[in-house]
């Protein structure tokens, strides 16, 4: 009485996993790039922090020398 039909292309079974794998690889590459950028930013921040520390040491030393000369 009822006539139902389903049609599935065999290409679907091949192309879908390929698209999924391709998308996964793009995601992994994007994550690696983000992690690399995070490391670069961290390195720059640590370098800048070290420069600030050195600057404050210099200022403190300069202040001590000035005080010693005034006494």
Structure description:
The chain is mainly α and 71 residues long. Helices cover 86% and strands 0% of the residues. It contains one helix and no strands. The radius of gyration is 32 Å and the shape is rod-shaped. The longest helix has 61 residues, at 10-70.
Summarize this entry quickly:
The chain has 71 residues and is an all-alpha fold.
The number of helical runs is 1
**General form:** rod-shaped
What does the radius of gyration come to?
32 Å
H/E element order: H
* Percent in strands: under 5%
Q: For the terminal residues, how far apart are their CA atoms?
A: 112 Å
Say how many strands there are. 0
Helix/strand/pairing category: mainly alpha
Largest sheet: none
Q: Which stretches are low in confidence, meaning pLDDT under 50 for 5 or more residues running? A: none
Rounded mean pLDDT is 92
Helix content: over 70%
Spell out the blueprint of helices and strands.
Blueprint lengths: L9 H61 L1
Short key terms for the protein model shown above:
single chain; rod-shaped; 71 residues; mainly alpha; 0% strand
